[in-house]
Amino acid sequence: MTTMKRATFGKLLGSLALLLAGGGMPAWGRSGWDELNLPHGVTNVSNRIYALHMMAFWVCVGIAVVVFGVMIWSLIFHRKARGAVPDVSLTHSTKVEVVWTTVPVLILVGMAVPAARLLVRINNNTDSQVSIRVTGFQWGWRYQYLGTNVSLISKLSQSSNLARQLHSGLGPSSVRHYLLSVDHPLVVPVGEKVRLLITSVDVIHSWWVPDLGVKRDAIPGYINQASFTIAADRPGTYRGQCTELCGRDHAYMPIVVHAVSPAAFEAWLKQQSAVQSEASAGAPAQPTSRS
């Protein structure tokens, strides 16, 4: 075996070892296999999505092992150099045809049933404790907490916005969570079901936070729904992005969700309501036009 072949073989073995050693929880900033695999997430639905994904993955691995194993075995033990002679009398086997039709059907049904159940669960947006209208625009998000006067505009943070400029003198590595930080994050409570009503005012956007297991298109003139419940023991900050190419600054409209305790959420909501009510009361009256 030449040096080049040994190096290539070593790389293949290393990649296989990395693949088989995977299964950790990916997150922003992690490396290796974690960047390639789906995250476990912090919601029940996201964990079910991960489990379904891994089931399908290992089913595909098992199929690949069987198929390529038979191919490799045939190439080695039935090659011409061993004096193998093709059997010209071979036509077909009804039993084999039944087997190779029945087995894939059973595999597909076995994968389709849990997938269908999960889809029903994902689209169950009833019995929510908090409802938020999410409106995408070029290039940011507006969040309106229904039933309150609280709303906020969430756009790329000033630090990331400055670092992305060509002659700013700042590099991406100098900014924490570069292009994944915002000026006003979406604040939600843990342990409570949050329903999102997602739309857009201009072009199609897509609201995606992988740790929540949520990805929904924001379409002008149409409202999509999504919901999630962050586990009570998983408060924290979770990041995502717009995943629908929506124009020049598509890459610069991240999503940040800040999950807090229900008590902290209620306190934040009251504080924001008071601040925004005061700001509205102090705003100058808009001139009215005369007909």
Give your account of this protein's structure.
There is one protein chain. The chain is of the alpha+beta class and 291 residues long. Helices cover 38% and strands 21% of the residues. It has helices spanning 3-20, 33-36, 44-77, 94-122, 158-163, 262-282; strands spanning 130-137, 140-145, 151-154, 186-189, 193-200, 205-209, 214-218, 224-229, 236-242, 254-260. It has a five-stranded mixed sheet with strand order 3-2-1-5-8, with no helix packed on it. Strands 4-10-9-6-7 form a five-stranded mixed sheet, with helices on one face. Helix 3 (44-77) runs antiparallel to helix 4 (94-122). The longest helix is centred in the N-terminal third of the chain and has 34 residues, at 44-77.
Quickly name the level 1 CATH class of the largest domain: Mainly Beta
Percent helix range: 25-40%
Spatial gap, N to C terminus: 90 Å
| Main β sheet profile | 5 strands, mixed
Mean pLDDT: 84
Strand order of the largest sheet: 3-2-1-5-8
Number of strands: 10
Task: Bin the strand percentage.
Answer: 15-25%
Provide the low-confidence segments as ranges. Answer: 1-31, 285-291
Structural class: alpha+beta
Quickly count the domains. Answer: 2
Order of helices and strands: HHHHEEEHEEEEEEEH
The third-level CATH topology of the largest domain is Immunoglobulin-like
Note the total helix count.
6
CATH superfamily of the largest domain: Cupredoxins -  blue copper proteins
Whole-angstrom Rg: 27 Å
CATH architecture of the largest domain: Sandwich
